[in-house]
Design goal:
Elements lengths: L2 H13 L1 H6 L13 H23 L9 H10 L4 H4 L11 H23 L4 H13 L15 H25 L24
Helix pairs in contact: 1-4, 1-6, 3-4, 3-8, 4-7, 4-8, 6-7
């Protein structure tokens, strides 16, 4: 793999390891519990590894090929700004001032950019694409994305990220529901009731 890119990822992870182990992925929407952020990042990265290998093989004619190292780095760092978005109050986590001002996309991009500058050995184009992934992985403006993904690596990360978040929300809704009958109560985040009356 790309050694400078790997060093960048490991440096950021090492510096953020405290909040990474404790932070929720979000306060209410998905993985809203201590350690949820790390669980989400690991899950998304595993899915991205699978998809990157699938599409590298599927599109051998693409030149340059899909960058597997970039997909993995982007998957690991896509939400790293959330370590700065929330405070470290274990009882009632709150957004930080920076979190409210800028959100996890810009905080994550700053972490990537500042650390890359400090290390000084990563290909500039690779850093730019990694920053692009961090800023655009939400894709939709209404979800907070200021720009649309312009590289295929980001497409993989976006869909793996969205699927992982939605699946966790579905499972938590189904497992925690106390409603009588075959449907859950309406989930305010998902905006729907889910069918829980299935036998298989």
């Amino acid at each position: 793999g790309d050694i400078p890119l790997r060093r960048l990822v490991l440096t950021i992870l090492d510096r953020q390891k405290g909040p990474l182990k404790q932070a929720p992925a979000t306060l209410k929407h998905f993985y809203p519990f201590a350690g949820g952020l790390l669980e989400h990042i690991l899950s998304v990265t595993n899915t991205c590894l699978h998809l990157a290998d699938k599409y590298v093989t599927h599109y051998p004619e693409l030149q340059p090929p899909l960058n597997r190292d970039l997909v993995v780095a982007g998957a690991i760092l896509h939400d790293v700004g959330r370590t700065l978005e929330f405070d470290d109050n274990l009882v009632a986590v709150q957004p930080t001032i920076e979190g409210r001002f800028f959100g996890h996309l810009f905080l994550g991009r700053d972490l990537v950019r500042d650390t890359a500058r400090e290390l000084g050995d990563i290909e500039a184009d690779l850093v730019r694409m990694l920053e692009h992934i961090v800023v655009t992985h939400l894709t939709l403006p209404e979800w907070g994305s200021p720009r649309l993904p312009l590289i295929p690596e980001c497409l993989i990360i976006h869909h793996a990220d969205d699927l992982d978040a939605k699946m966790e929300m579905y499972v938590r809704c189904l497992m925690n529901d106390k409603e009588a009958g075959p449907f859950t109560a309406r989930d305010p985040i998902l905006g729907r009731t889910l069918y829980k009356g299935r036998q298989q």
